[in-house]
Design brief:
four-stranded antiparallel β-sheet; 9 strands; alpha+beta; 193 residues
Length: 193
């Protein structure tokens, strides 16, 4: 994530997203809704790791960090092919429809390995891989992942996701329909670069 934040920060992620999310307040605000239950089930606070894998496995490293699934999905989307030239520095009412379409179609199967194995590589070279891993991935995790995607693509779900000031990652997922009816808000302090 340290490398990823550096990459995204270099292309202007923080300046754009700060204005989009700063007005939403700070701290975690959650309720007992289905939205909150789904989001909490995909936080993986004690099971998420930044990983470096090498052809010489004795060099492999694994660093524990808070890395909820929504954050991983957001970063995958922000770094994928952008045919429309839209701003992918954040997700808000300006571009959330594009994000939802990407989630529904995922033509290049960017999320396949993440869903099936709980792992995604930001870079994947023959002798070096860098990515995120959710340890001890289970069938229940796959089900939680699927429920998260269903929530995110729901037409009544409003999303506000991005970095604030290069030091905090903001997540707000809200849906007021009868099925979900709730709000999940979280601010994460990623490691300093």
């Amino acid at each position: 994530m340290k490398k990823l934040i550096a990459i995204l920060g270099a292309v202007g992620l923080t300046a754009t997203s700060a204005t989009a999310v700063i007005s939403c307040g700070s701290g975690d605000k959650n309720d007992n809704s289905i939205v909150n239950t789904i989001m909490k089930s995909t936080e993986f606070n004690e099971r998420s790791y930044e990983i470096y894998e090498y052809s010489d496995s004795s060099k492999n490293t694994k660093e524990s960090m808070e890395y909820p699934m929504i954050e991983t999905i957001f970063f995958i989307w922000s770094l994928t092919d952008n045919e429309n030239g839209e701003n992918r520095d954040f997700i808000s009412n300006v571009n959330q429809d594009s994000f939802k379409i990407w989630l529904k179609t995922d033509k290049n199967n960017y999320l396949k390995n993440l869903k099936e194995n709980g792992k995604h590589y930001w870079s994947n070279y023959e002798d070096e891989k860098y990515g995120i891993e959710y340890e001890n991935w289970t069938e229940q995790d796959i089900q939680n992942f699927e429920e998260l995607i269903e929530l995110l693509i729901n037409e009544e779900t409003n999303l506000n996701i991005g970095l604030i000031n290069d030091s905090k990652f903001f997540i707000k997922v809200e849906n007021k329909n009868d099925k979900y009816n709730g709000t999940y808000t979280k601010i994460i302090n990623p490691p300093q670069i």
